[in-house]
Amino acid sequence: MKRVRKFLEADIGVVKPEVANLTDPHIFTMDLELPKKADVLAYLDHNASAPHRKARIIVFRGDLEPPVVEERLCGPLDNIISCPVDVTVPFSQRPVENREYEIYERSIMKKIHATFEHWSSSYRKGRDRMRNSEGKTNCDYLLLVKLKNKGAFIDSFILMCAGALYNDIQEFLTLYNNGTIKKTQMKYPTKQEALFSTLKQRGSPKPPDGKRYTIRHRKVEYLDMWSFNFRMSTIFGPGIYDVRFLGERIAYEINLGEIVVFYSGYNPMQRQAFYVDSFVLTGSQSQALVAGADCPTTATFLPLTVTSQGREEPAVFPRAICIFEQNLGTPIRRHHSYDRDSGVDYGGMLDSALIVRSIHTIDNYDYIVDFTFHQNGALGVSIGQSGFLFTSFYTPEERPYGVKITDHITGALHVHLANFKVDLDINGTSNRYESIDIEEETVDLRQAKKSQAKYSQTRFSYNIKETERKAALKNTFNTPMYHIFHNNDARNKFGEKKAYRLASNGMVKQLLQKNVGNEGSQAWARYQLAVTKHKDEERTTGNPYGQWVSDQKVVDFEKFIDDDENIVDEDLVAWVTVGFHHIPHAEDLPVTTTSGKHQSFYLFPYNYFEECPSMKSRDAIYVSHKDSKRPEKGLHFEYYGTGDVKKYNNKGVCRYQPLDIAEFWMKNPDDLVELTKHNGVI
């Protein structure tokens, strides 16, 4: 980088950043330019010479007329011989750099602040309140400024207030004072009232040490947040029941209903292969989970008892289910602010969740079923596949249906499908199902002066599903939408519906022709989502008799929705289908792997709470200035996860000395946030 800068200073007169103005030629940024792929492959695979390294340099040329942005390619980097212009961009399209923010503040904003402070004594107080607010984009800005930056001089702007636009300050003040502008009275919030945007931990803290879940009989409690019962159906598999978050029931039951696989092929065996897993009693096939491979070694393993088909005594599988808390290694939320005016530096929290897992070996395939309970009120349900492929002898006729994965073996195309029953009770059993449909609209691009310009954006609308047929979704994948369930009488303090959102990440289109071959025995697979009125007799979509195609269907899902009953303000059940089309490949040998292939759906709170429930968690970290006006004084570090180590040690609770994260960062706080220096990076 130093070599590039020195070359450009001599070549085109680039000015050093410490003294450069917007009208001077100066470097905005540098980046390594990747070589051509063919050159890299020649070097990697065919012993060709290593490609020369080059850099792409973005230079602001405010010194030219008209001013432009130049992208230059400099190289070779070990001995630079040229930096020719590769791309030229209009100056008005340049990214904003540090010095421009300073120009805005010195010229435009200084003028605006002075005018309003003269006009209103409370303006400065409000400005300072916003300046020191965490999450400034969450603040209630009614007065906005749109700057015009067409050239190298920034000297004009448009005022926006409560959605209206004004050409200058005087126009705004005149209309404000004569009552034309609608006013909204707002009081300055107290520190307590302003908590919604802070990332500090709050609420009754949850215990951080030891196992944070308990199991009593078949009831699980986790962090004083989640509670639920669980069971393993011998026929259909795992389910959770009376699912509550913060004491309120979210779901009556969520359970696996059925797993099926449809195969394709040229030879008769592959062509007719069709597996319904409840046929072999799905639940009974989770038998011996292995600590350290199937589940963490810290997991709690629980037994399953099933009727034996070979002896009088029931069969007991001691390790059929595992329950464990897992640090998922991903922030569930975080924000790192480098803006000294914001009053906050960092707030974040790793996502630790409770997982209930079973693994069902159905002949050649292994299905991993997880229920995952997050601290923000989200509940995930997923299924992943591993195990051996179902293969056939390779012939040329198999080519449209499979991939040759050894000298003589074809892996056959097939589709995995699983259905889950989700009986939601959101604020009781009187629920509605609505889609929130997202659509495009073309609107006028509003400016202070009349403009004919158009702009494309999206908007949403609520679409209540009144009957079961209207709630049977065959997703076209062309209309984005949310799916929410709520009690129409339950609203939050802002008047929004207190709902839970169902989001499926495993939607798949079932392509088979209706009622041809085996398709008719699994009618639920026609829909990615269906919602029906709860009926006790409609227990599940699966049945162990569906393996054999017959006109006498023991369970016919179409009958669940054919009566087309009203589902407004009723006890509702969602039937969720997930799956994927599997075209085998050589890397499926010896067994298929699960990475990135889990199909899942989630239940998310949607306006159900006034803020994210994870703010109660002691897993969070919060870092702030000791004195926001004097950042050189250093950092105040709040880490709630271990509490007071000495206090816990004296009680005999915490048996290890945890890493003192605060001490780690305090050695050089500038590594965490620019406190005493400024590196010239936005």
From TrEMBL:
<dbReference type="GO" id="GO:0008131">
    <property type="term" value="F:primary methylamine oxidase activity"/>
</dbReference>
<dbReference type="Pfam" id="PF01179">
    <property type="entry name" value="Cu_amine_oxid"/>
</dbReference>
<keyword id="KW-0186">Copper</keyword>
<dbReference type="GO" id="GO:0005507">
    <property type="term" value="F:copper ion binding"/>
</dbReference>
<dbReference type="Pfam" id="PF02727">
    <property type="entry name" value="Cu_amine_oxidN2"/>
</dbReference>
<keyword id="KW-0479">Metal-binding</keyword>
<feature type="active site" description="Proton acceptor">
    <location>
        <position position="277"/>
    </location>
</feature>
<feature type="domain" description="Copper amine oxidase N2-terminal">
    <location>
        <begin position="14"/>
        <end position="71"/>
    </location>
</feature>
<protein>
    <recommendedName>
        <fullName>Amine oxidase</fullName>
        <ecNumber>1.4.3.-</ecNumber>
    </recommendedName>
</protein>
<dbReference type="InterPro" id="IPR015800">
    <property type="entry name" value="Cu_amine_oxidase_N2"/>
</dbReference>
<dbReference type="GO" id="GO:0009308">
    <property type="term" value="P:amine metabolic process"/>
</dbReference>
<dbReference type="InterPro" id="IPR016182">
    <property type="entry name" value="Cu_amine_oxidase_N-reg"/>
</dbReference>
<dbReference type="InterPro" id="IPR036460">
    <property type="entry name" value="Cu_amine_oxidase_C_sf"/>
</dbReference>
<dbReference type="InterPro" id="IPR000269">
    <property type="entry name" value="Cu_amine_oxidase"/>
</dbReference>
<dbReference type="InterPro" id="IPR049948">
    <property type="entry name" value="Cu_Am_ox_TPQ-bd"/>
</dbReference>
<feature type="active site" description="Schiff-base intermediate with substrate; via topaquinone">
    <location>
        <position position="365"/>
    </location>
</feature>
<keyword id="KW-0801">TPQ</keyword>
<feature type="modified residue" description="2',4',5'-topaquinone">
    <location>
        <position position="365"/>
    </location>
</feature>
<feature type="domain" description="Copper amine oxidase catalytic">
    <location>
        <begin position="208"/>
        <end position="615"/>
    </location>
</feature>
<keyword id="KW-0560">Oxidoreductase</keyword>
<dbReference type="InterPro" id="IPR015798">
    <property type="entry name" value="Cu_amine_oxidase_C"/>
</dbReference>
<dbReference type="GO" id="GO:0048038">
    <property type="term" value="F:quinone binding"/>
</dbReference>
<comment type="similarity">
    <text>Belongs to the copper/topaquinone oxidase family.</text>
</comment>
<dbReference type="GO" id="GO:0005886">
    <property type="term" value="C:plasma membrane"/>
</dbReference>
<dbReference type="InterPro" id="IPR049947">
    <property type="entry name" value="Cu_Am_Ox_Cu-bd"/>
</dbReference>
